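S., here's the first fold you wanted:
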Amino acid sequence: MAKKNVEELLIAGGKSQPLRTKYDALKSMDDFVASAVTDGYDFTADELKEVLRESGDSFDSFGNPPKRMIWWF
């Protein structure tokens, strides 16, 4: 169930530029997960890491403003 929540957030971010911008600006994975839980996506950092690993994505951000290549379009 929690992996499904991670996937739903990654899909929602792929569809919504404001959502991507909000989450891309968060510095740490803990802040990212805390914000996701507040927004109704209930998962842990370990579950996020697992989904990212399975999809071959990295949580690293780059650029200014910061961006992550984790969103599913």
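And the second, which I think is the more interesting of the pair:
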Amino acid sequence: MLSERRVGDGLPPVWPADRYEVICERGESFGSTRDRYHYAKYAMESARALEKAGLARRVLVIRMADDTVIYDRAQGIELPPEEW
């Protein structure tokens, strides 16, 4: 990923660090995908859009700092925004 590339010039990364991961399980024949976001708002929007479009059988949003699941409709988890 672009945000994970390292440049040997000593400069800090241009992009902010990824803090949230959206895991999309599409089924056995299609596997799963993982996308990372810096902002929880965009991770949640992505997860809901994937579900609404019917492109996944399960979608999770995980806060990477502590591996907390903040969204998983299949398990009935949807933390309020102040806990993201």
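Why I say that: The chain has one domain: 18-83. The two ends are 24 Å apart (CA to CA).

Talk tomorrow,
H.
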